[in-house]
Design goal:
The protein has 159 residues and is an alpha+beta fold. The protein is built from 4 helices and 6 strands, in the order ααββαββββα. It has a 6-stranded mixed beta sheet. The protein is globular.
């Protein structure tokens, strides 16, 4: 197999170690809130279902992410591997954000991912629920950007 310059290791088929690495790389990307950079992790013809929105290309994914992060302010995310096999990974996650009126939320979700042989995500199915929280109930307090390596994950936090 000859991989293009756009290949995104680790590549399928995934091992437990490489699936955990892939999940953390995705978390780090989304925590950057850089829609153009994040979109490069998806195939040109990527297909998503996110809540009630359907995305059918990398360009649509980038536009979706730009809208998302304009609405979901101070976004901080933790993803955790749930299961994997071959070129598929299932994750659970929770993220915190607030709207422009200062209302805080913790959003819980699950995603199913399918990858092309070059490691780009070709399919993403997300189910998400938003729970209003008081600002005092926030659990994610690291500076915006990548979650620190010593910050607990979802299981350790009881989420």
């Amino acid at each position: 197999m000859s991989l293009s310059a756009s290949a995104r290791p680790p590549l399928p088929p995934f091992t437990r170690t490489s699936a955990i690495e892939k999940v953390r790389l995705a978390e780090d990307g989304w925590n950057s809130r850089d829609a153009a950079r994040v979109a490069l992790a998806y195939t040109l013809d990527t297909s998503w279902r996110n809540r009630t929105e359907f995305v059918h290309s990398r360009a649509e994914a980038q536009a979706f992410l730009e809208r998302k992060w304009r609405k979901e302010l101070d976004y901080r995310l933790i993803k955790e591997l749930w299961a994997f096999e071959g070129n598929r990974i299932a994750v659970r996650y929770a993220y915190e954000w607030h709207d422009d009126a200062g209302n805080w939320f913790r959003s819980y979700g699950n995603e199913n991912w399918e990858f092309a042989e070059d490691g780009l995500m070709q399919r993403r199915f997300a189910c998400i629920n938003d729970m209003p929280i008081a600002e005092s109930d926030r659990k994610y307090h690291w500076p915006l950007g990548r979650r620190p390596d010593d910050h607990p994950g979802l299981t350790e936090m009881g989420l």
